[in-house]
Automatic annotation (TrEMBL):
GO terms for cellular component: cytosol. It comes from marine sediment metagenome. One of its GO terms (molecular function) is polyubiquitin modification-dependent protein binding. Residues 1-77 form the Ubiquitin-like domain. This is Ubiquitin-like domain-containing protein. One of its GO terms (biological process) is ubiquitin-dependent protein catabolic process. InterPro entries: Ubiquilin, Ubiquitin-like_dom, Ubiquitin-like_domsf. CDD domains: Ubl_ubiquitin_like (cd17039). SUPFAM superfamilies: Ubiquitin-like.
Amino acid sequence: MRITVVTAIGGGKIDLDVDPHSTVAQLKREVAKKKKIPANTVIIVFHGKQLDDSEILKQTGMMDGDKCYLIARTKGGL
């Protein structure tokens, strides 16, 4: 299925062809590779819900043509 991952800050987007039986962790790795950021900083949000790494994309309700959102965690502090 083809989905669009929208960057929450900045609004950039990535169109991806993914297997509906892939896990969220697999999607995160693919997005991280495209954005050149560490996979452990990626959060995926779909329909207002942060998705867990172990969830299967199809079981989240994600379908062909859907959009989800990428939030990249950053380290804070002084």
